[in-house]
């Protein structure tokens, strides 16, 4: 697996990918400064303009800027106010229900043509294990929470299984368009959009393309108003251009640093750092620390193909966290050679002048050699026999302090 857990694209980036596949989206421009935003608004020459702050978190419309401006989405019929509105967005932090308390700095705005929507439908293509391939899911009830529709009126959810070798057949696309409630010439238009969305799905190695709403305008146009695209991390090697768009600026800086070394890091709010290989073992370690009255400070998963350098970098990340009062290493060596871990640990302890208690439990491949390296290192490392013993010793190390 790649070092990323998920690829984060801004709204304008998803819209651009859709445009490139011939999918109909609103006309739009992006700007990173107010004069450009104003120019874009004039160039659009639209009846109504929508200005949207570009951040990854949801709930933008109800958000608040630290410039005093309310709302990360503004509608206006007067292009001349767009520059001033943008000047209260760009460079300021926007706080929504989904952002951290201090908000997220807005570095880009999207200036788009606002279109009226006479009808909203829901459409998605996703990889479905049960069908061993892609499935189209649609509902004439769009623009709202699809889970709610599925719960209250399941008869309004339509599915079509796609043959991965054959692709979306014309009759399938037309049937889906009809089920979504598109009538007359709009049915053909919607079917074409569906086929283009499938082309995009394949082209970018998506695991899901969700359009909510896929809407109909009074002028008789079928438009994708909002889309979420999820990508397959395993396709990164052949989707270099898409993955290069990844916006890491809103990610936790420690998580981003960890990803560089193929480490998976999740910050928690306790004081015992967990350094483990494998997500299942990491969760078990967190639970057992909890059981013995401790609180995990994080979840750091080393994965399988371990190098000494990774162990060193992992320790660097853990010791940089001021909350950490003890470190618990729990490695079960199957693919992992315990001696590599032991060498990495001793090197890290010496070079980083470790100040907190360190409890180590190693098991598996080459474990005797690893234990010898640790015991002969002369470092104050507490050895543990099993996971339970390790958790008790880590909690005790803190209470003794």
UniProtKB/TrEMBL annotation:
EC class, as a word, reads: ligase
Keywords assigned by UniProt? Answer: GTP-binding, Ligase, Magnesium, Metal-binding, Mitochondrion, Nucleotide-binding, Tricarboxylic acid cycle
Sequence positions that bind substrate: 277, 334-336
Pinpoint the ATP-grasp fold succinyl-CoA synthetase-type domain residues. 8-215
GO MF annotations in UniProt: ATP binding; GTP binding; magnesium ion binding; succinate-CoA ligase (ADP-forming) activity; succinate-CoA ligase (GDP-forming) activity
For this protein, the Enzyme Commission number is 6.2.1.4
Kindly list the positions annotated as binding Mg(2+): 212, 226
Q: Does the keyword Magnesium apply?
A: yes
What does the cofactor section's free text say about binding? Answer: Binds 1 Mg(2+) ion per subunit.
**Residues given in the record as GTP binding sites:** 26, 59-61, 115
Which reaction(s) does the protein catalyse, per the Swiss-Prot or TrEMBL entry? GTP + succinate + CoA = succinyl-CoA + GDP + phosphate
* Localization in the cell: Mitochondrion
- How is the subunit organization of this protein annotated in UniProt? Heterodimer of an alpha and a beta subunit. The beta subunit determines specificity for GTP.
Q: Know the name of this protein?
A: Succinate--CoA ligase [GDP-forming] subunit beta, mitochondrial
């Amino acid at each position: 697996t790649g070092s990323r857990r998920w690829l984060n694209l801004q709204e304008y980036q998803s819209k651009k990918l859709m445009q490139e596949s011939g999918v109909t989206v609103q006309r739009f421009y992006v700007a990173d400064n107010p004069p450009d935003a104003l120019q874009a608004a004039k160039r659009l020459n639209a009846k109504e303009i929508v200005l949207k702050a570009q951040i990854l978190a949801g709930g933008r419309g109800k958000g608040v800027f630290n410039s005093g401006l309310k709302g990360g989405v503004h509608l206006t019929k007067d292009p001349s106010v767009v520059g001033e509105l943008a000047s209260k967005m760009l460079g300021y932090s926007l706080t929504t229900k989904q952002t951290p308390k201090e908000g997220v700095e807005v570095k880009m705005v999207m200036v788009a043509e606002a279109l009226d929507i006479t009808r909203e439908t829901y459409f998605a293509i996703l990889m479905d294990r049960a069908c061993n391939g892609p499935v189209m899911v649609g509902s004439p009830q769009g623009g709202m929470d699809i889970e709610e529709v599925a719960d209250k009126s399941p008869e309004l959810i339509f599915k079509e299984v796609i043959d991965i070798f054959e692709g979306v057949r014309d009759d399938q696309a037309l049937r889906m368009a009809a089920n979504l409630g598109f009538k007359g010439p709009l049915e053909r238009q919607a079917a074409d959009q569906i086929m283009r969305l499938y082309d995009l799905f394949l082209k970018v190695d998506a695991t899901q393309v969700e359009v909510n709403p896929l809407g109909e305008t009074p002028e008789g146009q079928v438009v994708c108003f909002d889309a979420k695209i999820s990508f397959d991390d395993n396709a990164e090697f052949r989707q270099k251009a898409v993955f290069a768009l990844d916006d890491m600026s809103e990610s936790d800086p420690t998580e981003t640093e960890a990803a560089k070394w193929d480490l998976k890091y999740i910050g928690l709010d306790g004081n015992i750092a967990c350094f483990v290989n494998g997500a299942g073992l990491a969760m078990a370690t967190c639970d057992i620390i909890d059981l013995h009255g401790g609180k995990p400070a994080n979840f750091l998963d080393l994965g399988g193909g371990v190098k000494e350098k990774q162990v060193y970098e992992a320790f660097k990340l853990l010791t940089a966290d001021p909350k950490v009062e003890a470190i618990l290493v729990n490695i079960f060596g199957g693919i992992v050679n315990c001696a590599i871990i032991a060498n990495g640990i001793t090197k890290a302890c010496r070079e980083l002048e470790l100040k907190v208690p360190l409890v180590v439990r190693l098991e598996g491949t080459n474990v005797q050699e690893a234990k010898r390296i640790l015991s002969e290192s002369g470092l104050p490392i507490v050895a543990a026999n099993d996971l339970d013993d390790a958790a008790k010793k880590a909690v005790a190390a803190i209470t003794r302090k």
